[in-house]
Input
Amino acid sequence: MHDRFIPKRRLSLLFAASALTAGLFSAPVCAADWPDRAVTVVVPFSAGGTTDVVGRLIANKLGQMWGQSVVIENKLGAGGNIGSAAVAQSKPDGYTILLASGSILTVNPHLYASLPFDVDNDFLPVTNIAQGPMVVVTAKKVKVKTLQELLDMAKKNPKKLNMGSAGMGSQVHMAGENFSYAAKVEFTHVPYRGEAAGLSDLLAGQIDLMVGNIGAATPHIQSGMINVLAVTSKDRAAMLPDVPTVSEAGVPGFENYGWFGFVVPKGTPNDIVRKIQQDTVKVLAMKDVKEKLSSLGMQAVGNSSEEFANNIKEESDRWAKVIKERNITISSGG
Output
């Protein structure tokens, strides 16, 4: 018997055809086919905090809409940088989404000497989901009844009051820094691995105050376990109508908002980014979702990817100035 001989040119064509066929089967999935399996939403903070609560609300609705599981993965640490880096390094196919707090995208690039990701080069903005004010809250052991009394105490005792946060560089941390900077007082910062952990120690009297997300703090305010002195919005908050604004209570002109938005790894196909954005907007328009966000003291946003990108840039520029003037730096971002 003789071995079958295949001319070199024909062999080359066969290999080319095989490669083309393999390419067809390994081609990136398009939005019409996506998702065909579970999607992971990474929340870079602990379970129970505002980011987590908002994430679970939206993930549940998207899962129903897509007919696939949308799983929340809490991957915390380093002010949200660890979870964010994991998403930046994931495959850009739409199956891994980051629910980022504003601080991750607009503060951390200026705060950390080095980061394991680059906001501009590693992420594509999808949409801002929701925003809301923060609240200045104190432990019951802190014997003040008004914001002005807190400021007077802080001025008489520089750095004696401990201010908790959701972690270095978190929006809870930076809201506190922004507040102390505007009020010209100094607190000692105590970072936690997530807002829920900080609030737990505030309830226990282990720290003195926080400038926390209104949704996370309000149940404890309403139970009488902590005291609320002011909200950081321009106008009074609907869920706490008797609480004055920081501007009213002693720091004229002060405003600070927390927000959360979806971003995906750079390179995610545009049609998939568009589908995530459009479907998230549909979820945010649902009556029960609006009501839940309102109960958290937040307002649905659902802007376009382009608008979201512009907002990130503008806010990033503002935080760069504050951080430089406050001379705040952190050596490593995770």
